[in-house]
């Protein structure tokens, strides 16, 4: 398995500001993913972040709103830009790990509230 | 397109009862992977099991068991002798390439185990 940490664990932000979420893994991984979980909802993939290449965004998510960095094989950041109350969610990073990368493990999440 | 359906949204049981969580999936892939995750009130997503489409053997892990049936496209999860600590939201998920690709999640099922 992989041990994943996220910072911050939670934050309350004002409309129009931006927040950068960090994801740190205890081992080198190729695949990192960022998901959003809106209140009471399921998880939706925002983007896939592979080291050395641009992140690949899912339909409905754009780089200007959710810029992602992946500077090395153990770290990634997701920025939520120009926030509105609709961005209030839990943001989770995950990594492909395990034998043949058949498992996907999640970080503890960042609870974001936008006022 | 891939789809995961968890028809039950919420179940409430009394401790020591057995409970089965249903999961039905849709995919055109001949190779795929199915997952179950637990999300307790604290919010982190806990990996429970991964099953690939080649292996239809049922699996038991302590009080947990999983029944995979390709003929009905189902991957059901049973908790035997439920405990209060089992109270959580449970998600079923589907992927084409195990942990190295995005997971498509069901809507989740909230289980409440009452003492």
Helix content of chain A: under 10%
* Ends apart, CA distance between termini of chain A: 36 Å
Order of helices and strands of chain B: EEEEEEEEEEEE
List unreliable stretches of 5+ residues of chain B: none
Order of helices and strands of chain A: EEEEEEEEEEE
Number of helices of chain A: 0
Distance between the termini of chain B: 41 Å
**Assembly state:** heterodimer
Radius of gyration of chain B: 14 Å
Largest interface, by Cβ-Cβ below 8 angstroms: which chains and how many residues each?
A-B, 29 and 21 residues
pLDDT averaged over residues of chain A: 92
Written overview of the protein:
The complex is a heterodimer of chains A (115) and B (115). The relative contact order of chain A is 0.34. With 115 residues, chain A is an all-beta fold. Helices cover 0% and strands 53% of the residues of chain A. In chain A, strands 2, 4, 5, 6, 9, 10 and 11 form a 7-stranded mixed beta sheet that branches. A 4-stranded antiparallel beta sheet of chain A has the order 1-3-8-7, with no helix packed on it. By secondary structure, chain B is mainly β. In chain B, strands 2, 5, 6, 10, 11 and 12 form a 6-stranded mixed beta sheet that branches. A 4-stranded antiparallel beta sheet of chain B has the order 3-9-8-7, with no helix packed on it. In chain B, strand 10 (88-95) and strand 11 form a beta hairpin. Chain B is globular, with a radius of gyration of 14 Å. The mean pLDDT of chain B is 92.
């Amino acid at each position: 398995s992989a041990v994943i940490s996220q910072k911050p664990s939670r934050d309350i932000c004002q409309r129009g500001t931006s927040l950068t979420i960090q994801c740190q893994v205890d081992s080198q991984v190729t695949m990192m993913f960022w998901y959003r979980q809106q209140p009471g909802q399921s998880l939706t993939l925002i983007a896939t972040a592979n080291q050395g290449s641009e992140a690949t965004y899912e339909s409905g998510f754009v780089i200007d709103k959710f810029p992602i960095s992946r500077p090395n094989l153990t770290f990634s950041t997701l920025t939520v830009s120009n926030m509105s109350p609709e961005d209030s969610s839990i943001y989770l990073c995950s990594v492909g790990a395990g034998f043949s990368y058949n498992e996907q493990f999640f970080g503890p999440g960042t609870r974001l509230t936008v006022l | 397109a891939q789809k995961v359906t968890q028809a039950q949204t919420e179940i409430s049981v009394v401790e020591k009862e057995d409970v089965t969580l249903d999961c039905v999936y849709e995919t055109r892939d001949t190779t795929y992977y199915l997952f179950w995750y637990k999300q307790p009130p604290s919010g982190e997503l806990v990996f429970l099991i991964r099953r690939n489409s080649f292996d239809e053997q049922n699996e038991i892990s302590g009080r947990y068991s999983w029944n995979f049936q390709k003929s009905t496209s189902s991957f059901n999860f049973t908790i035997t002798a439920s405990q209060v600590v089992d109270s959580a939201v449970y998600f079923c998920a589907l992927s084409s390439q195990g942990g190295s690709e995005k997971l498509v999640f069901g809507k989740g099922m909230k289980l409440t185990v009452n003492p």
